[in-house]
């Protein structure tokens, strides 16, 4: 190999999985070679079979064998250049993240970004463990910008890990905007936890220090839904007023951010049982989404909000139709929609007394949970417990329910209305069908199960013809 080839081979060893030519040019261009030589040198390495090239998601991606990468990394560290190259790798991803519109990532762009997940994880692992404040800041930027990708993959636990790690390790005073974005993501994840109110107050202090008005509008709209969830309606209304004032001041009523504001306001109104206003807001959000060409938001987020409105208004059949419209759409099988929508369908069918109609969506979500417990939300296990109890399989229901209670014992969740209704019915059925000793024994056994094992037991019991 020529010296430029040896240098480039060592530097591209920083990539995990695969990488594009643009990424190589961003990360590997330095005083030793300009952009054109990165291209020509990469081609030379490909011709020597040291680098593989293949088409992924419509673009040429490059990769190297694990053994070659290990050699390259060893040489890179020995040269003393590892930190510099790792930093450029993180800067490249942080720059990509900063350029994203987090209110909506188009399908094509999301597909291109998902192939970078190995590189994202690698850059986070490096940057958030560095001693330099600025390196950790890069990690915060990466988490804040790319967070929708974990939703798209259905990796909520991994997403939570990176959000929490970034919050712990960035300097909030030096980088208030990124800290505010990360706090907003934490709020999204802990909506039903009473502690979220303290996090919301902290987030507002930080975002005001950043001076970024768009992020202030986004946070006010989100915090309004948090206050509404916890029945603090006067504070919810004040947050909505602040968000609307910013939108009008910035003339941003024709933006994806305003579309989200309308849908969030619909949530506040449904919590206040102002259903006519809630329906009007969600229709306005849908019109805005379609006008902006964001069909996915119109189908998924708007119909999900409609299902919530109609459920709380007592129109369970209408709520079910909206949930099934999401499931049956082209977006229904995406990881971020699959679980949420099927959980909702199962809950509504159970509360309508249609146990058999709830079994199929439960089988689907439990099947995925059995294969990957990192996607567990605990809702699917509660609904499975209710389905088992309604089928007369009370011991199995109590066992699965015991797993949920063990998982949530540190922080009992504040349940959304349909989940609370299902929870109350489940508790009533178990108390009526099992004596105290039987109930305690079954729940104690369930407390020892992982979500994965509880899902497997629930599926087996649902498929069994015998009652207990």
Key structural traits:
single chain; 468 residues; mainly alpha; Arc Repressor Mutant, subunit A; two-stranded antiparallel ribbon; 25 helices; 2% strand
Mind explaining what this structure looks like?
It is a single chain. This protein is mainly alpha-helical and 468 residues long. Among the domains are: 1-80, Arc Repressor Mutant, subunit A; 357-468, no CATH class. The chain is built from 25 helices and two strands. The protein has a two-stranded antiparallel ribbon. β1 (52-56) and β2 form a beta hairpin. The longest helix has 21 residues, at 133-153. The protein is globular and about 80 Å long.
Briefly characterize the structure.
The chain has 468 residues and is mostly helical. It has helices spanning 3-12, 21-28, 35-47, 66-79, 82-98, 107-114, 117-127, 133-153, 156-169, 176-189, 196-210, 213-229, 233-250, 256-271, 275-291, 295-299, 301-312, 316-328, 335-351, 355-371, 379-390, 394-407, 417-433, 436-447, 451-463, and strands spanning 52-56, 59-63.
């Amino acid at each position: 190999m020529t010296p430029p080839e040896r240098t480039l081979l060592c530097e591209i060893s920083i990539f995990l999985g695969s990488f594009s030519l643009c990424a190589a040019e961003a990360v590997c261009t330095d005083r030793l070679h300009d952009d054109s030589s990165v291209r020509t040198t990469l081609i030379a390495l490909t011709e020597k079979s040291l680098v593989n090239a293949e088409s992924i998601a419509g673009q040429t991606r490059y990769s190297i064998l694990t053994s070659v990468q290990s050699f390259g990394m060893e040489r890179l560290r020995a040269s003393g250049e590892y930190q510099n190259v790792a930093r450029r790798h993180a800067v490249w991803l942080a720059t990509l993240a900063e350029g994203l519109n987090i209110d909506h990532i188009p399908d094509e762009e999301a597909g291109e970004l998902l192939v970078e997940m190995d590189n994202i994880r690698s850059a986070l692992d490096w940057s958030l463990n560095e001693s330099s404040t600025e390196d950790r800041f890069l990690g915060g930027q990466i988490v804040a910008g790319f967070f929708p990708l974990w939703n798209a993959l259905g990796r909520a636990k991994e997403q939570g890990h990176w959000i929490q790690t970034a919050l712990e390790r960035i300097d909030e005073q030096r980088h208030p905007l990124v800290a505010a974005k990360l706090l907003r993501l934490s709020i999204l994840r802990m909506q039903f936890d009473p502690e979220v109110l303290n996090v919301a107050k902290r987030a507002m202090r930080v975002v005001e220090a950043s001076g970024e008005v768009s992020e202030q509008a986004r946070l006010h709209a989100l915090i309004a839904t948090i206050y509404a969830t916890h029945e603090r309606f006067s504070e919810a209304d004040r947050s909505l007023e602040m968000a609307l004032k910013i939108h009008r001041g910035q003339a941003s009523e024709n933006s994806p951010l305003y579309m989200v504001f309308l849908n969030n306001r619909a949530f506040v109104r449904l919590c206040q049982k102002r259903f006519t206003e809630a329906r009007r807001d969600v229709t306005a959000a849908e019109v805005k989404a379609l006008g902006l060409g964001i069909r996915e938001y119109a189908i998924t987020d708007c119909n999900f909000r409609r299902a919530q409105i109609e459920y709380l208004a007592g129109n369970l059949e209408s709520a079910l139709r909206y949930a099934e419209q999401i499931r049956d759409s082209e977006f229904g099988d995406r990881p971020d929609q699959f679980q949420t929508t099927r959980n909702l369908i199962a809950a509504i069918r159970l509360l309508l007394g249609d146990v058999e109609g709830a079994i199929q969506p439960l089988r689907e979500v439990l099947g995925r949970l059995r294969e990957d417990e990192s996607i567990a939300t605990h809702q699917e296990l509660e609904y499975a417990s209710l389905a088992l109890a309604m089928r007369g399989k009370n011991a199995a229901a109590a066992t699965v329910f015991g797993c949920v209670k063990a998982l949530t014992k540190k922080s009992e969740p504040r349940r959304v209305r349909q989940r609370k209704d299902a929870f109350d019915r489940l508790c009533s059925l178990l108390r009526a069908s099992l004596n105290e000793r039987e109930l305690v024994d079954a729940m104690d056994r369930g407390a020892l199960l992982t979500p994965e094992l509880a899902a497997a037991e629930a599926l087996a019991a649902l498929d069994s013809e015998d009652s207990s």
